[in-house]
């Protein structure tokens, strides 16, 4: 799995859909004004003129200067932008004609005159990515119209592909036949693999030192090697759907594709939330809050869906518990970026998976084998989403063989037991495994705002532990040539000693000297999570090994 760009691990804001250049810029400006951390905004579909799907051209009436828009996002607002691109083309567009001339389109849709759901309805079809030539032509088109304007990442939507909604599988296979490799019956499910392969390989040729990032609505085994992540599709704004996402994410990641996300809040909105009465508005806010708390501990952290608008400041007033919870968990994720980016390093360097079903780490504990609503976020954090309306507690099983600390209060619990954990509106229960060494950085508004210095090392005593801090330049492929560093941390419970090992490796811009703030978390002395509190010890580190004994 290639390294994802560091910014992709921050918070993304999206909606279905931003309708103008001004909406995009004003939304990001509001995030910055409210000091709500953000790294990426997403332009979903329909930025083109109504009859120009597949042109990848912006409607100039709504987007007068998309290149300037991207430049302002980058230079003035320190944000990135992902763009939605479909493998779909309306009949008569220039790009359609280019594909048709080469014979790289599925033509049965056109022959049947099938119209889509936009406006009066337009006849369209999809291209065949199983042809290498077709993949190259698709890249040529999106490169000239979008990548050349500075867009950072790709949302490759409808990679099932959805030639026409709500037709039988048999009919879909007929409309995708033939393709460059053979029958649709044999190759249909690999459509997403083929299109991501084309974009990844061609972008690396076009811009060899800019990390590719792709989000898809469908997936196939092996797709992770093309810097492709997937989301769970257009799920609904229901508590059941939130609960289903927890197990869905674990199963997806355990299958070997490590980057996964869901639409925070659910994509398809129940009608009662569109113009809600007071009771429905309360439920809408709580559903989004609980989904947001879960999303903060997913491999990718993104809000998206149909109206009402999904920006936290549009979901509730800033003094409401919903908003306060959302900004707290977003700031917590950014504080934890040294930990999270190190997990990304483990994915690439050690074939790791960030979102982990409990059976992956506690396989000898028979009690975890059918737990579908708790998961590990990396080796240290046990995450327990709340998926019922008005629930203020939830059952949590603490795996055996280790002790556990409540992340927020510092209270200690023995493993191998089921507890009733407190889950007030603004919080979900998160526990930290004994022996964990959790590196946290300064408060930031975007991932590359400033170096991770000082780093606060939260050492959860009670068992031996280790963790390796991974760092590189964050956006390029120099790490493939060995330009990255690791700093090993080990804790010896018997000796009550933390060792910060010798730094291995280097890269341009690396901090050669930095500070570590040590905070000892002890079962007999519970202490709340507080990044402003005085550290137990502070050391200056220049790359050489040093050891600190708990006082």
Topology of this protein?
Blueprint: E1 11-13, H1 21-33, E2 40-43, H2 66-75, E3 80-85, E4 88-90, H3 94-102, H4 108-112, E5 124-126, H5 132-145, E6 153-156, H6 169-175, H7 184-187, H8 191-206, E7 214-216, E8 228-231, H9 239-254, E9 260-261, H10 271-274, H11 278-295, E10 301-303, H12 312-315, H13 321-335, H14 337-350, E11 355-357, H15 358-361, E12 375-377, E13 381-383, E14 393-398, E15 403-406, E16 412-414, E17 417-422, E18 430-433, E19 437-440, E20 455-460, E21 465-471, E22 485-492, E23 497-500, E24 514-521, E25 537-541, E26 546-549
Parallel strand pairs: 1-2, 1-10, 2-3, 3-6, 6-7, 7-8, 8-9, 20-24
Antiparallel strand pairs: 4-5, 11-12, 12-13, 13-18, 14-17, 15-16, 15-18, 19-20, 21-22, 22-23, 23-26, 24-25
Helix pairs in contact: 1-2, 5-8, 11-13
Please give a handful of descriptors for the protein shown.
26 strands; 551 residues; alpha/beta; 8-stranded parallel β-sheet; 15 helices; globular; single chain
Give a description of the structure.
A hairpin with a 5-residue loop joins strand 15 and strand 16. With 551 residues, this protein is of the alpha/beta class. The chain has 15 helices and 26 strands. The chain has an 8-stranded parallel sheet with strand order 9-8-7-6-3-2-1-10. Strands 11-12-13-18-15-16 form a 6-stranded antiparallel sheet. The model has no long low-confidence stretch (mean pLDDT 97).
